[in-house]
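Predict both folds.
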Amino acid sequence: MEIKFIPLDYDTSEIGGRLYARIFGRTDKGERCCLFDKYETYFYIIAEYGNEEALKKKILDSYLRGRSDIELSRIDIVKKRFKETDINALKIFIRKRDMASFIEEIKKLKGIREIIGNDVNAVTSYISDSNLTPLVWHKIKVMNLEENPRLEDAKLGCKCFEISEIKEADQAIFIPKVMAFDIESEEFEIGKGRIIMIGISSGEFRKVITWKKAKKDFDFVEYVKDEIELINRFQEYVRKEDPDFLVGYFSDGFDMPYLRARADMNKIKLTLGIGGRQIRFERGVISSARIEGIVHVDVYKFISTIFAPALQSETLSLNEVSSELLGDSKLVIDWNSIHDDLERFYRYNLHDAVLTEKLFIKIWDNLSELVQIVKEPVFDVSRDRYSQLVENYILHNLSRFNEIPVSKPKHDEIMERRNRLKYEGAFVKQPEPGLYHDVAFFDFTSLYPSIIASFNISPLTLTEDRDNSYKTPEFEFQGKQQQFCFAKKQGFIPLLVHEIILLRKKLKQELKKNYSPALNARSYALKTIMNATYGYYGFFGARYYSVECAASTAAFARYYIKMVISSAEKEGFNVIYGDTDSIAIALGNKTKTDLLEFQKKINEQLPGDMELELENLYKSGMFVSKRTVEAGAKKKYALIDDKGKLRIR
């Protein structure tokens, strides 16, 4: 049988002594499905002295053949690349999820140079190998679970099949089914007071469940006996509405742990997952609440990472973010008089859930595009920091280059990286405070990514060869003047960045001709990955960490912005201000034609993907001074263009 299916969430499970990927999603008929796909985890061994065959025989004969606790599937000798170098490697396949004890035993053997590829998340590895990309429609040939004795008892509370073949299908718009919720409690400290009410918003369905009864009834309020019935009724509504996404605002940090604490206190199970599965809390700075079969999204976490840099809001509270993104805000409530105005309290709770649902819908295009680009599940992408998004994008593209990923840093290595000296960052030319007329703002288009692409900057292209390489300007690094060199042979990370730059240019041209929210979201998602690569190089937890690469990128950026400032001054322009990747120029007696000619000359000198763009020409601009001194303040100015549009930074 063939179905059309869109994956929404993934996990792995050992069933009948072997590993399976489980993929939760919907068919094009709207039916919830879980697909099972047998999967073998694997890792690589690089043998010493090229003795792959001897090492393979030693592993099979001396240690592992016939061991039921390890379940070795097979060993292949494969041609791969590692750190941009051709190698032969042993590819070790095993049928169980936990390979740690297996590797500890393997390490005892002589003849091993390096063990690699063993620390990639199983779901990441499965998606990459199967090409079953999240939020992309696929045609999938499936079999009933009864046809596989291992899976007969593995059914969940939805239709379940085993995968036999995967093909990509024609794409269609997927409209997710969303349920937003918000709890109100007697105390702010997790679990200390009872949950008073839970607001739910899912399209036309809107409800407040509470045990705190007002003097009259309201059609959107359902009264229950006590807190136990409140929690159980909420769970019943989740099962009945069957959403793809259960969403909250700061729900990882408050709503979900509060629900769990009160459920534990009342000795009831929190079984929101399909088939009555309980919530799991995964560790982190703020733990993440995972629901089997339903994707829990904390809208706050995604907005705080992806949207926050572009927001004007002073905080990321639900009220301020909703006001800016939706033009709507929370209801005002007097907490001291809620017992006297329960109707207001009900509406306050419900409106929070409504705002949360609207925010999810607002961010959905951006989230879904980022998921499809990074190729990680929605649950993870909605919570990942920039560095993890970049790393996963790299991991999912390694197969194109036949590369094995380098290993994640261990604790001691991370500590050593943390303790390294800082390097010099962006150049800033402080503005002269005052009012200026005819002000042009120039920006380098994607300066740091274009430098990475243009000069092939990567930890794997860093070289001692000064004859056939790109050389940085000399700059102070780790306490002395240094100059780094990067090989001219294309590295795969700079190539990935270059591809994104070209794709974004194409998308921006398409957007000018025919704007669409989906295209704009895709452009923003690509920009997110592209711009985060520089920071990723300097992130101490990165696989492809290199502070030398980060410092070199910043050194090139300083060199080129200083070059543009110097060239502008030689041409007779008054450079008011320069910061990181942009400069402000007062034309004085120069014309716009002079300005465009200057831009053309600069772009003819810039290498590779680097480009200077005229952001806008303003009638007037005001640059202010710092509060304590007369010097100009960076990133603080007001500009007005010839259409009367005001830009304030």
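Second protein follows, with its predicted structure tokens after the sequence.
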Amino acid sequence: MTAPGPASPGSPPSGFRESNLRALGGRFPDLETLLRACEPAPLEVLETPSGVPTARAGGRYLHSRYDPEGEARKAAAAAGGADTLVILGPALGYSAEAALRELPEARIVAASADPAFLAACLDARDLAAPLSDDRLSLLAGGAPEGLLWMFERLGTRKVRVLENKAETELYPDWYSRAKAVLARWQAKETVNSATLKRFGRLWVRNLARNLDEIPRHPGVAGLEGRFEGIPAVVAAAGPSLDEVLPLLAALRDRAVLVCVDTALRSLLGARIEPDFVVVVDPQYWNARHLDRCRPSRSVLVTEGAVWPSVFRMPFSGIRLCASLYPLGIFAEGRSGGAKGRLGAGGSVATTAWDFARILGCSPVYMAGLDLGFPGGHTHARASRFEQKALAEGRRLRPPATYLYEAYAGARPRDARANDGGTVRTDERLALYSWWFESRMIRHPECPTRNLSFLGLAVPGMPYESAESLLSLPPRRDRIDSLREDSAREVRETGNGEPRATDVRGQILGLLAGLETRADAALDLAARARTLERAGKDSSEILALLDEADRDLLGNEAKEIAGFLLPDLETLLGRPARTLSEALDRSESVYREIRDSAAYHREILT
């Protein structure tokens, strides 16, 4: 075996960079422009015994010195089980190439810290084929938070990571930030999975009961840019809301007032009625935040999975945002189209901010967004949480006990506050902070200020005093006119197309068909097991099972039924070693699909 050696000194350029850039430009013209402007970083390309090149930079080999393709193939094969594979340090592209081949269902995101280094790597090999593949996305330099934008665009739910340590050690700061971004994303997805396990059936039940509402109300998409250039104040329910309340009536004269559900009681108690109220949490207790509230001039912004009583509240009108759940998405598609998506960062405050952005408001001022516990408080005084703690307090379980449990319930820690000191926060609130931080980078056209002096410092969202907003010119007449136009559109759209019954019937028919097909697949698996135990040829039955799998994957209702299923990695477990184990796995999947379809049919009937 020949040891690897460097390419001959003074040898002509390979020419691959030009062809690779042309292939790249067909999909990412801005990235092509950036890389063409780069002076390629130093890179030593070497031959290997396998006949393909490797490379060395900073004294480190970026790939195997003997078989880079084989090394990449093994790594890619072991990285399955996720819908998105992130390659930190793509180097000469072997891992991306192997992943596209070994993981046909996955999307690949290659993240490179330095465009100049990527430009040098593109000179070493012919990568036109992978660069032209729609499943490959590239991030080169800039903020590592760009990974988040890619995940949102791709609809990523589960991420796996392949790291080229030789390359990541060349740019430790950038890749450390990228790893932190990925860790946060994965933490969020862990929370999302736990939330789905706990509340998935509730969301489906609510959607089934609210199905008739979906065609009756227009979407937030119709409001896009409607309040362009007008400031907005978004009222969240953190403790500092109480400090802003005395000024909020005056601020309302100067800005669109968007309120989250948990803050509505505080505003109405101060005789301040918001322009829009955002309610997206589907839980029963969340709907109780609206008890005895009569926001008759406010427009409700909500989602089809909320607790059904929310739709009966006396709002002046209702605007729906796009559902996050397959049953709602299907119903929207069959009854008038998409409503308009709003960001969901785990907190209603994140959705309310995104709604203000969609309106075209600029700048946006966040009131009561503490993302921590300043002074040891958890919520504004008039919030249902605080009032419930006071009402239910007893001698042996005083209100302070409830508040302490909220204060200390999610791994609390101290972090930097807007006043330069520290504030107690926790992991859950830190995730919300991270969501806002990423949006500040993504949407510079929507500058955002935080009115909470003692709240958590969010990068890109500097503190501003509420008093300074009083210098803004009054705009209430203009805001009321635009809001009334919106409310009029809602009234004119209401009850216009009662197509929900047809949608319900369509869904029931598709689910019945899916349930029948899953039952048939279970029968086939049982027949294959009988033949296998008898030592007979089961190839014909197995071919029919393959056909049944394709049929189930192509069924229109698979996303609806699949919403309540565990991910395939959980369902299937480790790879099957025998035919009997493979049939066990298949039967488990068919049974889950059948039971989920039956559950959906039951609640929709």
